[in-house]
Design a protein that fits this description.
Elements: H1 2-17, H2 23-57, H3 81-84, H4 87-91, H5 94-115, E1 122-128, E2 133-135, E3 139-140, E4 146-147, E5 151-153, E6 158-164, H6 172-241, H7 247-281
Antiparallel strand pairs: 1-6, 2-5, 3-4
Helix pairs in contact: 1-2, 2-7, 5-6, 6-7
Length: 284
């Protein structure tokens, strides 16, 4: 902008020197230059805000140079909404997988609680083989048979069968309450998963719509608005020279052209960020 004013000021001075203009033109250029400087100062806040937004969209620090290739020049392709909302695709979402894990944990806890309602039945079998017994002195067995010294007596094998049926000390009402609580937790986990799916679909629909809007608006800026504003700015030189427009109007046309370029870059950055968000939501 300021080099343009210098050129205009030189032009006005040359026209005065050649007798084709007057000194008022020079004062007019000076006045418009001062007004332009004032507008630049007032627009600094807006420019800084847009630069910060652009830096955030391309994931670079706000004070970094934005003249690097952090932002692709091309616009991203619009993702297929049907593919994003496909049931199989949604199941790959980290949020849905976490919700599904909680459902499995709640189901396992419920089964364990239901099994603890029934008293445990312990059954034990034991078999014992007994070797022949050597008799050291004459005696009588427990069955009344005589036992001769230095002889051996065959002993029968032993088989034992034990059954235990422990009775719980806690009342059944406590067990019913525990099972009921686990059932509620299981139901709640299923409802939470449903809510996660619904929220995921809602978010995908919103971000996809915003992605489509950003791409379309950026295309409009690229194909129509930016070229027309550039043309208007470049054609304004002739208008200024013939006195049909002021230098301030020329500068405003240049500002509109620059702001349109920045707006397109922000929309492009937003589109790439939204595309990344959508792919991240479905685990890609």
């Amino acid at each position: 902008g300021l080099p343009l004013f210098s050129a205009m000021q030189d032009g006005a001075t040359g026209m005065v020197a050649s007798g084709m203009g007057n000194a008022a033109d020079i004062y007019s250029v000076d006045a418009e230059r001062s007004e332009w400087l004032r507008k630049i100062e007032s627009a600094k806040t807006e420019v800084v805000r847009k630069q910060a937004g652009l830096a955030a969209a391309v994931s670079v620090p706000p004070d970094s140079s934005l003249e690097v290739d952090a932002l692709p020049e091309a616009l991203p392709e619009l993702l297929s909404l049907d593919s994003l909302l496909d049931k199989t695709t949604l199941q790959l979402s980290p949020a849905v997988q976490l919700a599904e894990q909680r459902v499995r944990e709640a189901k396992a806890s419920l089964k364990l609680s239901e099994r603890s309602y029934f008293t445990e039945l312990d059954v034990m079998f034991a078999y014992g083989y007994r070797f022949p017994m050597k008799v050291t002195s004459s005696s009588v067995s427990h069955s009344g048979e005589p036992l001769i010294a230095n002889s051996t007596v065959k002993q029968d094998a032993m088989l034992s069968f034990d059954v235990s049926f422990p009775l719980p000390l806690n009342p059944r009402s406590n067990q019913f309450a525990m099972i009921g609580e686990e059932r509620m937790m299981h139901k709640s986990s299923i409802e939470s998963k449903t809510a996660v799916l619904l929220q995921l679909k809602k978010t995908i629909l919103e971000e996809h719509a915003e992605l489509e809007r950003s791409i379309q608006e950026a295309k409009t800026l690229r194909e129509r608005i930016i070229p027309s504003r550039e043309t208007a700015y470049r054609q304004s030189f002739a208008g200024y020279l013939n006195g049909s427009i002021t230098l301030m109007q020329v500068s405003e046309l240049q500002m509109k052209w620059s702001m349109a370029q920045m707006e397109e870059a922000m929309l492009r950055a937003n589109a790439w960020a939204l595309r990344g968000n959508l792919l991240e939501r479905i685990g890609q």
